[in-house]
Amino acid sequence: MIDHQALAPKQTVAELDKYIVGQADAKRFVAIALRNRWRRQQVPSPLREEIAPKNIIMIGPTGVGKTEIARRLAILAQSPFLKVEASKFTEVGYVGRDVESMVRDLVEIAINMAKNEAKQSFEGIAEAAAEDRILDVLLPPTANQSSPLSDTGPEGAGSFTMVKQEGATPAIGAAREHSTRDKIRQMLRDGKFDEREVELELTEAKSTPMVEIMGASGMEEMQSSLQDAFSKIFPRKKNKKKLKVPEAMEAVKQEEMERLVDMDKVTKEALQRTEQAGIIFLDEIDKVVSRQSGSHGPDVSREGVQRDLLPIVEGTTVSTKYGLVKTDHILFIASGAFHVSKPSDLIPEMQGRFPIRVELQPLGKEEFIRILTEPENALTKQYTALLATEGITLSFEAEAIEEMAKIAVEVNERIEEIGARRLHTVLERVLDELSFDATEREESHFTVTADYVRAQLADVVRDQDLSRYIL
User: Fold this and answer.
1) Distance CA 146, CA 148 (A)
2) Cβ–Cβ under 8 Å, residues 252 and 210
3) Within a domain: 419
4) Is 335 helix (H, G, I), strand (E, B) or coil?
5) What letter would DSSP give residue 209?
6) How confident is the model over 235-276, as pLDDT tens digits?
7) 149 in the same domain as 112
8) In a domain, 468, yes or no
9) Side-chain half-sphere of 176: how many Cα atoms within 13 Å?
């Protein structure tokens, strides 16, 4: 299984802290959930199969870090991760996607992960094979052993021919060719041929006719099966392409890695990883909650969605084109704002499958200041890196960051609470003029001050109607 799941809960929280500010309770619960997966693997059978994951519901307004916590957890654990909106599913028989499609999508993600890892394990072998194929083009092996390389071939400096020498014995010729090949190999590695073009025969990517079936649930699986059937009927073609040597090396290397991968092994690994380490993030779960019991109309459909989701969350077997997948040990993390409903409004069976509930706190000015400066992917760091590409060194005064955080809080309170996402709009507005003029500016340094922030946002903050549209 995946070693990353062996991280201690404190280590997991420390890793999450690098990207997410605050929300200590939510981080704590997901860290425990991740560790429990590792613990379950250490438990002997048959008890191991009986231990179900403790699914989590995150409650909190938009923009406080619910999705980011789940996404970062999946990256940390190297687990197949799928984010899906619960509201996209409807009752079977109505227009909408089959709920089982999310498991199939998760399997596809796992297949890609396992395939990429398998390809990386063959990178060295593929690189050596690619080098040999390029050398065969640069220096074609000859039946009659020849002498050193000459660049006065039919195409001048762009091609190579062998200078024939009379009386050379086969052994001497072979030795010379081997020596020449080694010289060319070293020149290739030193980048001496980077500007040369070579002609290669490469296998095209799968060119399968597009088949799309619109219909009720279950049709997606049929569509996928038809695509696979067509891919076998229409084999891959080989095309000759002219590429520069570095591009040719990369193309051949990718082709060689693809050829070396054992897809049966990849599929087996991916199915196991989906079942034992998969994470499905069910966003907007509150949108499928009935507002009151015994209701009619849309609420009936909302409850129907819950009943459709229930078997997947409880544990069932889903048929995919790669094989059967059991969902018993997939970790489900649901989230919702629950403004007009509450988790207890979920149907009782669904509540039972989400035993852990954690409330995420709204973000204030202090949290916004930290979000703008502390994380490894902080917005200020992103904009600094972007403008550095134009030769501009961007810096932010502490008072400027405080002012942006303060304005973001005010706009959130006055218009609509969208959490940290408000910082994107505020910062984009503040740096709008600089971003537009960056290519023509003569100054190489620019410092964002509190006065500059206020000047850029003065009209927006003053005019509430305008701020509705801009911020």
Assistant:
1) 7
2) no
3) yes
4) strand
5) P
6) 566 777 777 878 888 888 888 888 888 889 999 999 999 998
7) no
8) no
9) 17
- The percent of residues in the chain predicted with pLDDT above 90, rounded, is 11
Question: pTM of the full predicted structure?
Answer: 0.74
Burial of residue 265 (CB within 10 Å: 0-12, 13-18, 19+) is exposed
Q: Which of 204, 226, 260 is the last residue of a domain?
A: 260
Beta carbons of 326 and 273 less than 8 angstroms apart: no
Name the nearest CA neighbour of 226 among 207, 210, 237, 215.
210
First to last CA, the chain: 46
Q: Provide the token pair at 18.
A: 């690098």
| 375 Cα distance to chain centroid | 19
Residue 206: closest CA among 190, 185, 227: 227
Counting Cα atoms < 13 Å in the Cβ hemisphere of 424 gives 6
Is 399 domain-assigned?
A: yes
In angstroms, the CA 339 to CA 83 distance is 21
Q: What confidence tens digit (pLDDT) does each residue in 205-232 have?
A: 554 454 444 444 455 556 666 666 655 5
- Which single residue is written with the structure tokens 């020849």? 146
CA atoms within 13 A on the CB side of 77: 33
Distance CA 427, CA 383 (A): 9
Residue length, the chain?
471
Give the Cα separation of 279 and 330 in Å (integer).
6
How many domains is the chain partitioned into structurally?
Answer: 3
Is there a single domain that holds both residue 288 and residue 340?
yes
Beta-bridged to residue 202, according to DSSP, are 239
Instruction: Select from 229, 260, 291 the last residue of a domain.
Output: 260
Q: Return the half-sphere exposure (C-beta side, CA atoms, 13 A cut-off) of residue 361.
A: 13
CA distance 98 to 304: 12
C-alpha distances out from residue 110 to 270, 278, 308, 315, Å? 5, 8, 24, 19
**CATH number of the domain enclosing 326:** 3.40.50.300
